[in-house]
Design brief:
Radius of gyration: 31 Å
Distance between the termini: 110 Å
Mean pLDDT: 79
Low-confidence stretches: 6-13, 213-223
CATH topology of the largest domain: Arc Repressor Mutant, subunit A
CATH class of the largest domain: Mainly Alpha
CATH superfamily of the largest domain: Winged helix-like DNA-binding domain superfamily/Winged helix DNA-binding domain
Largest sheet: 3 strands, antiparallel
Length: 223
């Protein structure tokens, strides 16, 4: 009887130990799963925040899914899914901007209901005053137009994205199609408002640009 009792006792202890070990992974799984889901949500939120930043810094030129995927080191499919989520979020009326996708290029756009307010913000008064930066940008567009933002920046040597937005809001310039260059950048030209403001009947009335000799280190400003 002693041996039988010992065997029963040993079996009883072994079963308890097995039960404890079997239950432990289930408890750990319950703890780990919410943590993993929370981490994934944080990573997705971070990725979308980065995409927003990339859309802002690329301005009118925008960014493709391939470029964004390479920046985030994720797949194109994952990037497109993130863009889709962002586009839905920006459809909300509480947002003044939306994300457009034209020809595979994503960019920020102001919503239609903002345009009238933007015009009021930059409305020309009875004695319009334009900054030197605005006059330089207008001169480049008037002489070289239709011209892209990159071409304007190459001539001026500084960024022109914000200035172009202001001049568009003032109706001094307009979009006139897209260049055949890679990425199909937007082309800009002056408007009738520009002509009226400077009392011009035709762009042919613009003064001729100074010409520099071949031996001069300076080159024609708009060459």
């Amino acid at each position: 009887m002693s041996e039988i009792d010992n065997r029963e006792t040993n079996v009883f202890i072994d079963v308890d130990e097995l039960t404890d070990h079997a239950e432990a992974p289930e408890e750990n799984a319950e703890d780990v799963q919410p943590a993993a889901e929370e981490e994934n949500a944080l990573q997705e939120g971070r990725a979308k925040a980065i995409l927003e930043g990339l859309l802002f810094v690329t301005g009118d030129e925008g960014i493709t899914a391939e470029q964004a995927a390479a920046s985030l080191d994720i797949t194109k499919e994952q990037t497109e899914a993130l863009f889709d989520d962002l586009m839905k979020e920006y459809c909300d009326e509480s947002r003044g901007m939306e994300i457009g996708n034209f020809g595979g290029i994503y960019r920020f756009l102001s919503k239609a209901f903002v345009h009238d307010y933007a015009r009021k913000l930059f409305a020309l008064d009875s004695a319009p005053k334009l900054s030197n930066a605005a006059l330089e940008t207008l001169a480049i567009i008037a002489y070289k137009g239709p011209v892209t933002r990159v071409e304007i920046e190459e001539i001026r040597g500084v960024g022109a994205d914000m200035m172009l937005r202001k001049l568009l809001a003032r109706d001094m310039i307009r979009e006139s199609g897209r260049s055949e260059a890679p990425g199909r950048p937007i082309l800009y030209e002056v408007t009738e408002e520009f002509m009226n403001s400077f009392k011009l009947l035709s762009l042919k009335e613009l003064p001729e640009l100074p010409k520099f000799g071949d031996n001069d280190e300076s080159r024609d400003l708009f060459e």
